[in-house]
Amino acid sequence: MTALQATALALVALGGTGVVITREPLRQAMVAGVFGILLAVLFFLFQAPDVALSQIGVGSVALPLMILLALSRIHTDEDGDG
Amino acid sequence: MSRRARLALFLPAALVLAVGLLWSFADLPPFGHYSGIYGIVLGHVAVAQREATNVVSAVTFDYRGVDTLGEEFILFAAAVGSAILLRAQRGEDAAGAAAERSDRRADVVARPVRALGAALVAPTIVLGAYIIAHGQLTPGGGFQGGVILASAAVLVYASGQYLAVRVVRGVAPIEIADALGAAGFALIAVGGLVFGLAALHNFLGYGISGSLFSAGIIPLANVAVGVEVAGGVTLIVAEFLDQALMRRRSG
Amino acid sequence: MSVFPYIVAGWLLLVGLWGIVTSRHLVHLVICLSVMQSSTYVLLLAVGYRHGAKAPIFADIPSGTQVVDPVVQALTLTDVVVEATVAALLLALAVQAQKRFGTVDPDELGALRG
Predict the structure, then answer these.
(1) Of B80, B199, B225, B229, which residue is most buried, by most CB within 10 angstroms?
(2) Which member of C2, C59, C66 has the closest CB to residue B137?
(3) Could you tell me the pTM of the whole model?
């Protein structure tokens, strides 16, 4: 295993932990975006460019966006009639 | 169940799971010493057999096309399910004028941001189409390109032109794209039967590897999946957007 | 060190599961589930990796070059995209829960149902 791969793996493990222990969902959406990018880097280092491309699109754009929109809806519900 | 009880139940279970995982990892081939026959054989024969230089695409849409067909319908069902769930709430909310809301939003977004967003829409669409079209040659394909195309739709919104998204959406075109993509891939799968072969048989000429029209049905399948993924993700985002904006408007 | 990637995959699975069990917010729960799912990606790609092998794209490498396993990559790349739409479905359910019950705390939801 190259040093680069080991570093990326360690960062992914830390990132995943970070996503889980961030309890506030709004902040968590951001951390999840960073975690998605870390995963994409790891996939590149595992010689999987196809998967990395998929992961970049989903992890950094689609998933955080959906989370933010869902949260926005839930928060306005909380503020409103509930 | 109380939180304490749940945690008390989880910790021993997690411990057992961790030990089981460690035990199984010990018997896996050590990292970097992959010995699966299937993958090694495919690495050797795929280019010669299918004229596709991207072996991953060849596996996704040809050798293991059945798996992808299943995955694709999961995606379709999930997109339709989210749309139904979110729409069920639409009727419950007081109906309001969406156009009025979008006008207000247009004022909120700074003009340079809107200009930049609008300028990026076209290149993003080109990039998505490029990634889909070259799926059998270089890294990329319908799944990746579809997500990029969907993010172009998001850019349209980010540049403050929610009105445009509504017009483009008009609900129908995106849904039709989603359904057409799903149906397209299924039709390609059935195509093999039409020609007296097995389902998902690669029934088109393979062409010359490295050219845009090579590898038989793989580019077609890429386009079908690309259209479906783009339609599905855009549909979901548009429905969420509708929800988020509607509440703020009435609230 | 030859099992380190597998350990990372196992860790992601367990930490995601812990997050789900202790979650106080349905959206947080969905994101923890996506962390769990990423453990399968890491495991699959790690199993298919070969030292010194290239990516299975023969666009610019001579045929016959050693490549990593394309099968696990095909499995993973489709699942990454499908997982996102499934997460969207779960988020839509969370939005519904807030609408119907006025809370997104799984504990309170359980209490409501009695």
Answers:
(1) B229
(2) C59
(3) 0.85
